[in-house]
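Exercise 3.2. Students should predict the tertiary structure of the chain below and write it as C-alpha coordinates, then compare their answer with the key that follows.

Predict this chain's 3D structure.
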Amino acid sequence: MKSIWHETKSLSGHPQLPGSIHTEAAVIGGGLSGILTAFYLTQCGIRTIILEARRIGSGQTGGTTAKITAQHGLIYQKLIRTFGENHARLYAAANRQAITEYARLIRSRSIDCEFKETSACLYTCSSDELLQREYTAACRLGILAQLSTETELPFPVQNALYFPHQAQFHPLKFLDAISRELTIYEETPVISVKDHRILTQYGEVTAKHIIFACHSPFLLWPGLYFARLYQSRNYMLALAGAPKLEGMYLGIDPDGHSFRTAGEKLLIGGKGYRTGTIPDNPYQSLQNFAHKYYPTAKTAARWSAQDCISLDGIPLIGRYSMLEPDWYVITGFGKWGMTSSMTAAQIISRMICRKNAPWDHIFTPQRIRLKASWREALKHLSASSKGLAAGLFSPDQRCPHMGCRLVWNPYENTWECPCHGSRFSQQGKILSGPAQTDCCSCKR
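Answer key:
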Protein backbone atom coordinates (compact mmCIF):
# COMPACT_ATOMS: atom_id res chain seq x y z
CA MET A 1 0.00 0.00 0.00
CA LYS A 2 2.21 2.78 -1.30
CA SER A 3 1.35 6.43 -0.77
CA ILE A 4 0.61 8.67 -3.73
CA TRP A 5 4.06 10.20 -3.22
CA HIS A 6 5.89 6.89 -3.59
CA GLU A 7 3.71 6.01 -6.58
CA THR A 8 4.77 9.16 -8.41
CA LYS A 9 8.41 9.56 -7.37
CA SER A 10 11.28 7.08 -7.13
CA LEU A 11 14.22 8.29 -5.06
CA SER A 12 17.82 7.66 -5.97
CA GLY A 13 19.55 4.98 -3.91
CA HIS A 14 22.54 5.51 -1.62
CA PRO A 15 25.25 3.11 -0.42
CA GLN A 16 25.58 1.46 2.96
CA LEU A 17 28.18 2.78 5.38
CA PRO A 18 31.50 1.53 3.92
CA GLY A 19 33.26 1.20 7.28
CA SER A 20 34.29 3.24 10.31
CA ILE A 21 34.54 6.96 9.64
CA HIS A 22 34.97 10.31 11.40
CA THR A 23 32.75 13.32 10.71
CA GLU A 24 31.78 16.60 12.34
CA ALA A 25 28.05 15.87 12.52
CA ALA A 26 25.99 12.70 12.09
CA VAL A 27 22.22 12.68 11.60
CA ILE A 28 20.37 9.48 12.52
CA GLY A 29 17.30 9.32 10.28
CA GLY A 30 16.73 10.15 6.62
CA GLY A 31 13.28 11.67 6.76
CA LEU A 32 12.59 15.29 5.88
CA SER A 33 13.75 16.69 9.24
CA GLY A 34 17.04 14.77 9.08
CA ILE A 35 17.70 15.65 5.45
CA LEU A 36 16.93 19.33 6.02
CA THR A 37 19.13 19.45 9.12
CA ALA A 38 22.03 17.92 7.21
CA PHE A 39 21.38 20.33 4.34
CA TYR A 40 21.64 23.43 6.53
CA LEU A 41 24.65 22.10 8.43
CA THR A 42 26.41 21.44 5.13
CA GLN A 43 25.52 24.94 3.97
CA CYS A 44 27.27 26.20 7.11
CA GLY A 45 30.43 24.29 6.18
CA ILE A 46 30.01 21.49 8.72
CA ARG A 47 30.88 18.04 7.36
CA THR A 48 27.73 15.98 7.92
CA ILE A 49 26.55 12.47 7.15
CA ILE A 50 23.10 10.84 7.36
CA LEU A 51 22.53 7.28 8.60
CA GLU A 52 19.20 5.81 7.48
CA ALA A 53 18.03 2.36 8.59
CA ARG A 54 16.07 1.76 5.38
CA ARG A 55 15.66 4.23 2.49
CA ILE A 56 15.39 8.00 2.82
CA GLY A 57 11.79 9.18 2.83
CA SER A 58 10.51 5.70 3.69
CA GLY A 59 8.88 6.71 6.97
CA GLN A 60 6.41 9.46 7.82
CA THR A 61 7.78 11.75 5.09
CA GLY A 62 6.49 9.34 2.47
CA GLY A 63 3.09 8.99 4.14
CA THR A 64 2.24 12.57 4.98
CA THR A 65 -0.55 14.69 3.51
CA ALA A 66 2.25 17.23 2.87
CA LYS A 67 0.60 20.39 4.16
CA ILE A 68 2.99 23.22 5.03
CA THR A 69 0.98 25.28 7.46
CA ALA A 70 1.00 27.19 10.74
CA GLN A 71 -2.60 26.10 11.32
CA HIS A 72 -2.12 23.05 13.52
CA GLY A 73 -5.66 22.22 14.50
CA LEU A 74 -7.07 24.05 17.51
CA ILE A 75 -3.58 24.85 18.76
CA TYR A 76 -3.47 28.55 19.57
CA GLN A 77 -6.27 28.74 22.12
CA LYS A 78 -4.58 25.85 23.96
CA LEU A 79 -1.12 27.45 23.80
CA ILE A 80 -2.39 30.75 25.18
CA ARG A 81 -4.15 28.91 28.02
CA THR A 82 -1.31 26.55 28.97
CA PHE A 83 1.91 28.30 27.88
CA GLY A 84 0.94 31.96 27.73
CA GLU A 85 0.46 34.46 24.93
CA ASN A 86 4.17 35.09 24.33
CA HIS A 87 4.90 31.38 23.80
CA ALA A 88 1.91 31.06 21.49
CA ARG A 89 3.04 34.06 19.45
CA LEU A 90 6.56 32.64 19.06
CA TYR A 91 5.18 29.23 18.06
CA ALA A 92 3.16 30.90 15.31
CA ALA A 93 6.16 32.96 14.21
CA ALA A 94 8.37 29.85 13.97
CA ASN A 95 5.87 28.09 11.74
CA ARG A 96 5.23 31.13 9.55
CA GLN A 97 8.98 31.49 9.10
CA ALA A 98 9.16 27.82 8.08
CA ILE A 99 6.62 28.40 5.31
CA THR A 100 8.60 31.43 4.10
CA GLU A 101 11.84 29.43 4.11
CA TYR A 102 10.33 26.60 2.09
CA ALA A 103 9.19 29.13 -0.53
CA ARG A 104 12.62 30.80 -0.59
CA LEU A 105 14.52 27.53 -0.84
CA ILE A 106 12.29 26.09 -3.57
CA ARG A 107 12.42 29.31 -5.57
CA SER A 108 16.17 29.89 -5.20
CA ARG A 109 17.06 26.32 -6.21
CA SER A 110 14.31 25.97 -8.85
CA ILE A 111 12.96 22.80 -7.23
CA ASP A 112 10.07 21.25 -9.14
CA CYS A 113 8.00 19.80 -6.30
CA GLU A 114 4.45 21.00 -7.03
CA PHE A 115 4.77 23.73 -4.42
CA LYS A 116 1.61 25.80 -4.23
CA GLU A 117 0.59 28.62 -1.94
CA THR A 118 -2.95 28.09 -0.73
CA SER A 119 -5.19 28.49 2.31
CA ALA A 120 -5.54 26.05 5.21
CA CYS A 121 -9.03 25.68 6.63
CA LEU A 122 -10.45 24.15 9.79
CA TYR A 123 -14.14 23.32 9.51
CA THR A 124 -16.95 22.02 11.72
CA CYS A 125 -20.33 20.56 10.85
CA SER A 126 -21.63 20.89 14.41
CA SER A 127 -20.98 23.59 17.01
CA ASP A 128 -18.72 26.45 15.94
CA GLU A 129 -17.77 27.55 19.48
CA LEU A 130 -14.27 26.06 19.28
CA LEU A 131 -13.61 27.67 15.90
CA GLN A 132 -14.73 31.01 17.28
CA ARG A 133 -12.25 30.63 20.14
CA GLU A 134 -9.45 29.67 17.75
CA TYR A 135 -10.24 32.68 15.57
CA THR A 136 -10.10 34.96 18.62
CA ALA A 137 -6.78 33.40 19.67
CA ALA A 138 -5.33 33.83 16.17
CA CYS A 139 -6.34 37.49 16.09
CA ARG A 140 -4.72 38.09 19.51
CA LEU A 141 -1.48 36.67 18.13
CA GLY A 142 -1.52 38.74 14.98
CA ILE A 143 -2.25 35.77 12.68
CA LEU A 144 -4.16 36.62 9.54
CA ALA A 145 -7.37 34.55 9.68
CA GLN A 146 -11.03 34.75 8.73
CA LEU A 147 -14.27 32.89 9.44
CA SER A 148 -16.69 31.86 6.71
CA THR A 149 -19.51 29.40 6.15
CA GLU A 150 -18.41 28.93 2.53
CA THR A 151 -16.10 26.08 1.53
CA GLU A 152 -15.38 23.91 -1.52
CA LEU A 153 -16.43 20.78 0.34
CA PRO A 154 -19.36 18.68 -0.96
CA PHE A 155 -21.36 19.11 2.25
CA PRO A 156 -22.52 22.12 4.28
CA VAL A 157 -20.46 23.27 7.25
CA GLN A 158 -21.45 25.18 10.36
CA ASN A 159 -18.36 27.35 10.14
CA ALA A 160 -14.83 27.39 8.72
CA LEU A 161 -11.64 29.14 9.81
CA TYR A 162 -9.22 30.07 7.02
CA PHE A 163 -5.51 30.83 7.33
CA PRO A 164 -4.32 32.27 3.99
CA HIS A 165 -0.75 32.07 2.60
CA GLN A 166 -0.08 28.47 3.63
CA ALA A 167 1.28 25.87 1.18
CA GLN A 168 1.38 22.30 -0.07
CA PHE A 169 3.93 20.30 -2.09
CA HIS A 170 5.18 16.88 -3.19
CA PRO A 171 7.44 15.87 -0.26
CA LEU A 172 9.52 13.24 -2.04
CA LYS A 173 10.27 15.46 -5.04
CA PHE A 174 11.47 18.12 -2.61
CA LEU A 175 13.43 15.56 -0.57
CA ASP A 176 15.13 14.21 -3.67
CA ALA A 177 16.22 17.67 -4.78
CA ILE A 178 17.80 18.79 -1.51
CA SER A 179 19.44 15.44 -0.76
CA ARG A 180 21.52 15.23 -3.95
CA GLU A 181 24.52 17.05 -2.51
CA LEU A 182 24.48 15.27 0.86
CA THR A 183 26.42 12.27 2.14
CA ILE A 184 23.84 9.59 2.88
CA TYR A 185 24.22 5.98 3.95
CA GLU A 186 21.09 3.86 3.55
CA GLU A 187 20.27 0.39 4.90
CA THR A 188 22.52 1.27 7.84
CA PRO A 189 20.55 0.88 11.08
CA VAL A 190 22.15 2.25 14.23
CA ILE A 191 22.71 -0.32 16.98
CA SER A 192 23.83 1.96 19.82
CA VAL A 193 25.12 5.44 20.61
CA LYS A 194 27.60 6.28 23.35
CA ASP A 195 29.31 9.61 23.87
CA HIS A 196 30.51 10.58 20.36
CA ARG A 197 30.39 7.08 18.88
CA ILE A 198 27.60 5.59 16.78
CA LEU A 199 27.77 1.82 16.30
CA THR A 200 26.34 0.11 13.22
CA GLN A 201 26.93 -3.40 11.90
CA TYR A 202 29.01 -1.90 9.08
CA GLY A 203 31.33 0.20 11.19
CA GLU A 204 31.56 2.90 13.82
CA VAL A 205 30.88 6.58 13.17
CA THR A 206 32.67 9.09 15.38
CA ALA A 207 31.04 12.52 15.35
CA LYS A 208 31.35 15.70 17.39
CA HIS A 209 27.61 16.36 17.01
CA ILE A 210 24.94 13.64 16.90
CA ILE A 211 21.36 14.43 15.85
CA PHE A 212 18.54 11.96 16.53
CA ALA A 213 16.01 12.59 13.74
CA CYS A 214 14.63 9.05 13.69
CA HIS A 215 10.95 9.82 14.38
CA SER A 216 10.92 8.22 17.85
CA PRO A 217 14.21 8.17 19.84
CA PHE A 218 15.26 4.56 20.50
CA LEU A 219 17.48 5.01 23.58
CA LEU A 220 15.81 4.46 26.94
CA TRP A 221 18.35 6.63 28.74
CA PRO A 222 19.03 9.50 28.93
CA GLY A 223 16.00 11.55 27.95
CA LEU A 224 13.26 9.02 28.82
CA TYR A 225 11.55 9.82 25.53
CA PHE A 226 9.54 6.61 25.63
CA ALA A 227 7.60 8.16 28.53
CA ARG A 228 7.19 11.56 26.86
CA LEU A 229 5.82 10.51 23.48
CA TYR A 230 3.10 8.32 22.04
CA GLN A 231 2.29 7.39 18.46
CA SER A 232 -0.88 7.67 16.40
CA ARG A 233 -1.78 5.98 13.11
CA ASN A 234 -3.78 7.72 10.39
CA TYR A 235 -5.39 6.24 7.28
CA MET A 236 -5.75 7.88 3.86
CA LEU A 237 -7.24 7.45 0.39
CA ALA A 238 -6.31 9.01 -2.94
CA LEU A 239 -9.33 9.41 -5.25
CA ALA A 240 -9.22 9.68 -9.02
CA GLY A 241 -12.07 11.49 -10.73
CA ALA A 242 -13.03 13.72 -7.79
CA PRO A 243 -13.30 17.53 -8.16
CA LYS A 244 -10.14 19.46 -7.37
CA LEU A 245 -9.88 21.65 -4.29
CA GLU A 246 -7.96 24.90 -4.20
CA GLY A 247 -7.49 24.87 -0.43
CA MET A 248 -6.55 22.36 2.29
CA TYR A 249 -9.21 21.31 4.80
CA LEU A 250 -9.26 19.62 8.21
CA GLY A 251 -12.38 18.78 10.20
CA ILE A 252 -12.27 19.39 13.94
CA ASP A 253 -15.32 17.21 14.75
CA PRO A 254 -14.69 13.69 16.12
CA ASP A 255 -15.63 12.26 12.71
CA GLY A 256 -13.97 15.03 10.70
CA HIS A 257 -11.82 14.40 7.63
CA SER A 258 -8.76 15.92 5.99
CA PHE A 259 -8.80 17.01 2.32
CA ARG A 260 -6.31 18.32 -0.23
CA THR A 261 -5.70 17.90 -3.93
CA ALA A 262 -2.42 16.41 -5.18
CA GLY A 263 -2.09 16.61 -8.95
CA GLU A 264 -5.15 14.88 -10.37
CA LYS A 265 -5.98 13.07 -7.11
CA LEU A 266 -8.01 14.10 -4.07
CA LEU A 267 -6.50 12.98 -0.76
CA ILE A 268 -8.90 12.18 2.08
CA GLY A 269 -7.73 11.32 5.58
CA GLY A 270 -9.76 10.09 8.52
CA LYS A 271 -9.55 10.08 12.26
CA GLY A 272 -6.26 9.06 13.86
CA TYR A 273 -5.95 6.22 16.39
CA ARG A 274 -3.29 5.54 18.95
CA THR A 275 -0.97 2.91 17.47
CA GLY A 276 -2.03 -0.47 18.82
CA THR A 277 -5.68 0.58 19.00
CA ILE A 278 -7.28 -1.17 16.05
CA PRO A 279 -10.36 0.57 14.58
CA ASP A 280 -13.13 -1.16 12.63
CA ASN A 281 -11.80 -1.34 9.07
CA PRO A 282 -10.62 2.28 8.66
CA TYR A 283 -10.16 1.93 4.91
CA GLN A 284 -13.73 0.74 4.41
CA SER A 285 -14.95 3.66 6.53
CA LEU A 286 -13.05 6.09 4.30
CA GLN A 287 -14.34 4.41 1.16
CA ASN A 288 -17.92 4.60 2.41
CA PHE A 289 -17.44 8.31 3.07
CA ALA A 290 -15.85 8.86 -0.34
CA HIS A 291 -18.65 6.99 -2.14
CA LYS A 292 -21.28 9.09 -0.37
CA TYR A 293 -19.85 12.42 -1.50
CA TYR A 294 -17.86 11.42 -4.60
CA PRO A 295 -19.89 8.49 -6.02
CA THR A 296 -18.15 8.44 -9.41
CA ALA A 297 -14.58 8.68 -8.05
CA LYS A 298 -12.28 5.64 -7.89
CA THR A 299 -9.77 4.76 -5.19
CA ALA A 300 -6.32 5.14 -6.75
CA ALA A 301 -4.26 4.46 -3.61
CA ARG A 302 -4.63 3.91 0.10
CA TRP A 303 -2.05 3.97 2.86
CA SER A 304 -1.43 4.81 6.49
CA ALA A 305 1.15 6.89 8.30
CA GLN A 306 2.31 7.28 11.87
CA ASP A 307 2.65 10.45 13.91
CA CYS A 308 4.83 10.81 16.99
CA ILE A 309 3.10 13.11 19.48
CA SER A 310 4.48 14.87 22.54
CA LEU A 311 2.40 15.01 25.70
CA ASP A 312 1.97 18.79 25.59
CA GLY A 313 1.43 18.95 21.82
CA ILE A 314 4.61 20.87 20.95
CA PRO A 315 7.54 19.19 19.16
CA LEU A 316 10.67 18.31 21.12
CA ILE A 317 13.56 20.02 19.32
CA GLY A 318 16.92 20.83 20.87
CA ARG A 319 19.53 19.24 23.11
CA TYR A 320 18.81 15.58 23.74
CA SER A 321 19.71 15.74 27.42
CA MET A 322 21.74 17.86 29.80
CA LEU A 323 23.87 14.74 30.29
CA GLU A 324 24.88 14.69 26.61
CA PRO A 325 25.51 18.29 25.50
CA ASP A 326 26.58 17.25 21.98
CA TRP A 327 23.46 15.20 21.24
CA TYR A 328 20.35 16.76 19.69
CA VAL A 329 16.83 15.45 19.16
CA ILE A 330 14.01 16.12 16.69
CA THR A 331 10.70 14.40 17.46
CA GLY A 332 7.06 14.81 18.49
CA PHE A 333 5.74 16.62 15.40
CA GLY A 334 2.20 15.31 15.77
CA LYS A 335 0.38 15.69 12.47
CA TRP A 336 2.45 18.68 11.32
CA GLY A 337 5.76 17.18 10.34
CA MET A 338 6.37 19.12 7.14
CA THR A 339 6.34 22.58 8.73
CA SER A 340 7.97 21.33 11.93
CA SER A 341 10.77 19.64 9.96
CA MET A 342 11.87 23.01 8.62
CA THR A 343 11.60 24.62 12.05
CA ALA A 344 13.63 21.78 13.58
CA ALA A 345 16.33 21.85 10.92
CA GLN A 346 16.90 25.54 11.41
CA ILE A 347 16.90 25.33 15.21
CA ILE A 348 19.39 22.43 15.35
CA SER A 349 21.70 23.76 12.63
CA ARG A 350 21.79 27.17 14.30
CA MET A 351 22.52 25.65 17.70
CA ILE A 352 25.45 23.70 16.29
CA CYS A 353 26.67 26.80 14.44
CA ARG A 354 26.30 28.78 17.71
CA LYS A 355 23.43 30.91 16.51
CA ASN A 356 20.05 31.33 18.17
CA ALA A 357 16.48 31.83 17.06
CA PRO A 358 13.94 33.66 19.26
CA TRP A 359 11.75 30.55 19.54
CA ASP A 360 14.39 27.97 20.52
CA HIS A 361 13.15 27.76 24.11
CA ILE A 362 9.57 27.04 22.99
CA PHE A 363 10.62 23.65 21.62
CA THR A 364 13.36 22.68 24.08
CA PRO A 365 13.04 19.05 25.28
CA GLN A 366 14.04 20.24 28.77
CA ARG A 367 10.76 22.09 29.30
CA ILE A 368 8.31 20.94 31.96
CA ARG A 369 4.73 22.16 31.53
CA LEU A 370 2.44 20.00 33.65
CA LYS A 371 -0.54 22.26 32.95
CA ALA A 372 -0.25 21.44 29.26
CA SER A 373 0.63 17.75 29.51
CA TRP A 374 -0.77 16.06 32.62
CA ARG A 375 -3.94 14.71 30.97
CA GLU A 376 -2.05 13.13 28.07
CA ALA A 377 0.61 11.89 30.48
CA LEU A 378 -2.00 9.96 32.47
CA LYS A 379 -3.49 8.46 29.29
CA HIS A 380 -0.04 7.44 28.05
CA LEU A 381 0.91 5.95 31.43
CA SER A 382 -2.34 3.97 31.53
CA ALA A 383 -1.96 2.58 27.99
CA SER A 384 1.72 1.72 28.53
CA SER A 385 1.04 0.04 31.87
CA LYS A 386 -1.65 -2.16 30.33
CA GLY A 387 0.62 -3.10 27.45
CA LEU A 388 3.54 -3.93 29.76
CA ALA A 389 1.32 -6.01 32.04
CA ALA A 390 -0.12 -7.92 29.09
CA GLY A 391 3.41 -8.57 27.83
CA LEU A 392 4.24 -10.47 31.02
CA PHE A 393 1.69 -13.14 30.04
CA SER A 394 2.49 -13.23 26.30
CA PRO A 395 6.22 -13.92 25.93
CA ASP A 396 5.75 -14.92 22.28
CA GLN A 397 4.21 -11.56 21.33
CA ARG A 398 6.38 -9.07 23.19
CA CYS A 399 7.92 -5.96 21.68
CA PRO A 400 11.74 -6.12 21.89
CA HIS A 401 11.83 -2.45 22.91
CA MET A 402 10.41 -2.75 26.44
CA GLY A 403 8.35 -5.93 26.46
CA CYS A 404 4.82 -4.63 25.79
CA ARG A 405 2.39 -7.08 24.26
CA LEU A 406 2.02 -6.52 20.52
CA VAL A 407 -1.37 -6.20 18.83
CA TRP A 408 -2.20 -7.54 15.36
CA ASN A 409 -3.53 -4.96 12.86
CA PRO A 410 -5.39 -6.96 10.16
CA TYR A 411 -5.84 -3.91 7.92
CA GLU A 412 -2.08 -3.31 7.68
CA ASN A 413 -0.93 -6.90 8.24
CA THR A 414 1.40 -5.65 10.96
CA TRP A 415 2.16 -6.17 14.61
CA GLU A 416 1.89 -2.92 16.60
CA CYS A 417 3.09 -1.93 20.05
CA PRO A 418 0.33 -0.07 21.97
CA CYS A 419 2.90 1.35 24.40
CA HIS A 420 5.44 3.14 22.21
CA GLY A 421 4.34 2.56 18.62
CA SER A 422 6.91 0.13 17.19
CA ARG A 423 5.64 -1.85 14.19
CA PHE A 424 6.62 -5.21 12.72
CA SER A 425 5.74 -7.18 9.63
CA GLN A 426 3.67 -10.35 9.66
CA GLN A 427 6.92 -12.31 9.98
CA GLY A 428 8.24 -10.08 12.79
CA LYS A 429 10.62 -7.91 10.77
CA ILE A 430 10.93 -4.42 12.24
CA LEU A 431 9.21 -1.70 10.21
CA SER A 432 9.50 1.29 12.55
CA GLY A 433 10.83 2.07 16.02
CA PRO A 434 11.66 2.91 18.72
CA ALA A 435 12.40 -0.84 18.73
CA GLN A 436 15.71 -1.59 17.00
CA THR A 437 15.49 -5.32 16.39
CA ASP A 438 13.06 -7.78 14.82
CA CYS A 439 10.46 -9.57 16.90
CA CYS A 440 11.75 -13.08 16.23
CA SER A 441 8.86 -14.80 18.00
CA CYS A 442 6.11 -12.84 16.22
CA LYS A 443 4.73 -14.98 13.41
CA ARG A 444 1.29 -15.21 11.92
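Discussion points: The longest helix spans residues 85-108. The mean pLDDT is 93.
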